[in-house]
Amino acid sequence: MKDFPAKRVLEWALLLPLAIPAYIGAYAFVDFWEYAGPFQTFLRDIFGWSSARDYWFPEVRSRMVAIVIIASSLYPYVYLLARAAYREQSNNAIEVSRALGCGPWASFFRVGLPLARPAIVAGTVVVMMETLNDFGTVEYFAVQTLTTGIFSAWLEGSNVGAAAQIACVVFVLILGLLLLERFSRRNIRVYQGANNNKKPSPVALTGTARYLALITCTVPVLIGFLMPFLIILNHAIGNFEQWHDPQVLAAVLTTLWVAGMAALITVIGATILIYGIRLSRAALPRLLLPATSIGYVAPGAVLGLGTLIVMARFDHWLADSLETLFGIDVGLLITGTSGAVIFAYCVRFFTLAYGSIDAGFGRVSPNLGMAARSLGYGPAAVLRYVHAPLLRTSVLTAILLVFVDSVKELPATLLLRPFGFNTLATHVYDFASLEDIKGAAVAALLIILVSTVAVFILAKASKGQN
């Protein structure tokens, strides 16, 4: 609702931190702090500080720094939803409040903010769920969370029961967050009048206010995107030999394989499910449909552990059955293979594909399908010749979103990957855990570049909606 320098650029630049996974931002921040070492020495010399009791510098490996890094990476979820909510608000309500004696700040807190509250709360819940899912950042900063407890109990203590118990606690917390969000707005109803929706006219800021607005909107981009991107880019350019490192090339091929297969399987499954529900009038599929989103709200560590336990039992049952029937010991066929990783990706990111394709189907008139059926085409032919061309953009968007999130996924991959199996995310984690940020630079840069493409598509889609 205000105009200030570089507003149109910052409006989309504020989405860029979504392209930097929090664990990569953590590695870059620690590296940046090491660059600041000479500056700290300079301050000691200037002020004559001789011991740690004479001054104070923030502890880099602390809970507070982990909070800042995660917030810098995840705030765009709140920003995107809140921005859409404010753009949809009619200026009539603000003008009425001003006519009744409210100043600019009073109109914001008493009218604008309550109208945008559902979107803000929804974005905050997403951030909380993504924070529970984070492993790389908190593990790197030695912050003990429930997610790190799952890995400690399973990988270090070899205690599957304890890891499963912690996973259950995390899952209950996730469900509690969702129920709390719904309960908090149980009696709130927000309606926008379609016929009286007057878009706000931005007011140009003057004097100091315009520069304060510019600085306020620039700082999140600097911390959340530019700083980690430039540090990773500097290491990637300075270590050119990594670009043809066999380990990096193997990680790239593995990532393309598992993320690509997960994207194709997920999008095909979502398309068939949505199309089947549109054709069927049965109530049961529609009632069960919300269950497909559980995978996305469940943290990767919880999903990975659940997948591992279930698949291991199925594999043992299958191996025992085959040995009993044919006398052949086939071993474990699924557990410890890329199939388990692909399955976890499909379950976790099915909601992304479903949301994009469902929105595409919603823009296609049912009359087109009915007309094709009246001409003798079967359901499969209608899907192929009528809906598929119209859904091309939605399908490509869904494939890209699932692919990018699969590339960035770390906790589930760490739990399910076979020996010698590395994606770009696990390659970055392996080197960073050894304090070798330079060795992880090229893989981290590739993740950032792939994720940036998805952010641009998200920004374009958001622009089209507004």
From TrEMBL:
Its main location: membrane. The keyword Cell membrane applies. The keyword Cell membrane applies. Residues 1-179, 252-459 form the ABC transmembrane type-1 domain. The chain crosses the membrane at residues 12-30, 64-82, 161-180, 211-237, 249-275, 287-312, 324-347, 382-404, 439-459. It comes from the Bacteria. It is a multi-pass membrane protein. InterPro entries: MetI-like, MetI-like_sf. CDD domains: TM_PBP2. Keywords: Cell membrane, Membrane, Transmembrane, Transmembrane helix, Transport. It is found in: Cell membrane. Belongs to the binding-protein-dependent transport system permease family. This is Iron ABC transporter permease. It comes from Paramylibacter ulvae.
